[in-house]
Amino acid sequence: MSRYARTHETLRTAALEMFAAQGYDATTTAAVAERAGVSEMTLFRHFATKEALLLEDAFDPAVAAAVRARPPQEHPMRAAAEGVRTVWRQLPEDQVESVRERIRIIAGAKGLHGAIERNSRATVDALVGALCERGTARTEARVVASALVAGLSVALLDWAGGGTAEAVAPGAAGLRDVLDRVLDTLGGGR
Predict the structure, then answer these.
(1) Which residues neighbour 139 within 8 Å (Cβ) at sequence distance 6 or greater?
(2) Which of 14, 92, 110, 132 has a CA 20 to 30 Å removed from the CA of 78?
(3) Are 42 and 66 members of one domain?
(4) Alpha-carbon distance 154 to 147, whole Å?
(5) 171 and 147 share a domain?
(6) Are 64 and 87 in contact (CB under 8 A)?
(7) Which residue segment(s) compose the domain that 91 sits in?
(8) DSSP state of 165
(9) What is the CATH number of the domain that holds 29?
(10) What phi and psi values does residue 134 have, to the nearest 5 degrees?
């Protein structure tokens, strides 16, 4: 692992620990940088904003690539759902609790509400681009991508215990089970 990658991961870990302990809104970037043993300037070289410490992820490009790789005759909703499933199944089991904690923090942080919407919009845009490359009309691609992202958001928030609906008890259903159910529903089953 390169020095940059180690520092990046150290900053993300420090932020997650601090956000979990004292809340996102109460944690400053200066405190995160101090805990990680770097300057605040270094933190901002790695993460453009405080919200990026939680919201930045590599899923969008990977999901878009997985959707583009689906069979060309496959219905757009099924292609999108199966593309998402492919990428999420690659998440190592030892990272699942970290994902749950990130989602809990995001759900509880008032200061992130606009950022969550922007982040979701970026995911929708990535899916729309991939679907359009497969030949799906832009309007249909936006409907598919928006429905998929909305459905996933509800399911993940409930799974993490941060949703507005009755939350799934921790340990009651694994991430893979929750995602399989919602993706089967959205994509019309397997």
Answers:
(1) none
(2) 92
(3) no
(4) 11
(5) yes
(6) no
(7) 57-187
(8) S
(9) 1.10.10.60
(10) -85, -5
- pLDDT for 60-118, tens place per residue? 899 999 999 999 999 999 999 999 999 988 888 888 888 888 888 888 888 787 777 88
Give the count of beta carbons closer than 10 Å to the beta carbon of residue 80.
Answer: 31
Quick one: 89 exposed, middle or buried, by C-beta within 10 A (0-12, 13-18, 19+)? Answer: exposed
- Give this prediction's pTM: 0.81
What is the rounded distance in angstroms from the CA atom of residue 184 to the CA atom of residue 14? 36
> Which CATH number belongs to the domain containing residue 118 in this structure?
1.10.357.10
Three state DSSP letters for 41-95: HHHHHHCCCCCHHHHCCCHHHHHHHHHHCCCCCCCHHHHHHHHHHHHHCCCCHHH
Angle CA(187)–CA(87)–CA(113) in degrees, nearest 5? 80
Same domain, 36 and 65: no
| Co-location of 30 and 71 in the same domain | no
Over residues 119-149, the pLDDT tens digits come to: 889 899 999 999 999 999 999 999 999 999 9
To which residue do tokens 């997985």 refer? 66
User: How many domains does the structure of the chain reveal?
Assistant: 2
Report whether 91 contacts 175 (CB < 8 A). yes
Do 19 and 100 have their domain in common? no
